Amino acid sequence: TNAKNHNVVVSYFEAETDEKIQRELDILNQLRYGLKNEEFTVYLQPKINLATSELEGFEALARWNSPVLGQVSPVEFIRIAEQNGKINEVDNIILKKVLQFQNERLQKGQKIVPIAVNISPVHFYSDTFVNDFISLVNKYNISPDLIQVEVTESVELFDYKKAKEILLELKKLGYESAIDDFGVGFSSLSYLQQLPFSEIKIDRSFINDINDADMHAVVKTIVQLASNLRMHVVAEGIETSEQYAILQKMGCSTGQGFYFHKPMPLEEAEKLLY
Ligand code: C2E
Ligand code: MG
Ligand code: MG
Ligand code: MG
Questions:
Q1: Which ranges carry the EAL domain (predicted)?
Q2: Are 98 and 60 within 8 A, CB to CB?
Q3: How far is CA 73 from each of CA 3, 123, 184, rounded to the nearest angstrom?
Q4: Mean local confidence (pLDDT), 241-249
Q5: ipTM of the complex
Q6: 15 — pLDDT class (breaks 50, 70, 90)
Q7: Does the beta carbon of 71 lie inside 6 Å of ligand 1?
Q8: Which of 52, 102, 149, 230 could be stapled to 177 by a disulfide with Cβ–Cβ 3.0 to 4.6 Å?
Q9: If we measure between CA atoms, which residue out of 205, 274, 219, 215 comes closest to residue 252?
């Protein structure tokens, strides 16, 4: 009976793994259709000046509503897109929609704030990134100060020389770049100092635990580091007024989070621009 129980346990785990693999296959298959059939939309989350509570800009976040799978989180589909050669396409669909949005507001003479797009490290390091990016922005007649790049640092992909080259090229053209999810996964602080990022985004997990004395010290150190390196610093995932107050007191310039706004559809974001 022992052996029998053991078999039950084994097949239970096997079934779970099969399910996971099937889910990934379903996502990959639907992704191919979804990219062609306009199933992706952009949500915008406001970036708030913590001193004045004014809107400084937005971050663009991909949303995918599949007729087959329903709403799929980017946490799930971005990784699958990265592993299957689809991520450049995902990033560029979102980038195009953001450029179109900016272009329409420009045409109508409406207020415009910078919008940051997320670029996967897989895409960022691919040979076509800078040229594709620049030609898309130019195609929509958007000036570089109205579009920003966020790159999540990845230890596996980290290539200091190449990162510096790409960031310098963007900087020379007038684009600002942010290092996203800072604190989780960055290998060396000495690299940060030499990479021409204009902004550090402190990972949400740090803000979540900011009441903890050690974490408080860590966040304070990052804010000071950013200031010393003359980089802009953004706290991600602010959910409470206490977190807001602590970060404001530390001198953190900008914040994002559900406390201010959740990511929202373009039409809703437009209501914040007047
Ligand atoms: P991220 O770039 O760090 O974006 C912030 C994530 O935190 C978003 O999740 C946002 O909805 C969420 N968030 C914002 N404020 C709060 C808060 O106060 N509390 C909590 N619990 N969460 C908050 P989302 O939209 O699910 O995106 C997850 C990740 O997927 C993003 O993390 C980004 O790495 C990636 N992603 C999203 N869109 C794109 C895209 O177009 N291209 C690429 N390459 N990655 C994308
Ligand atoms: Mg981001
Ligand atoms: Mg990220
Ligand atoms: Mg982030």
A1: 24-274
A2: yes
A3: 40, 19, 20
A4: 98
A5: 0.98
A6: low
A7: no
A8: 149
A9: 219
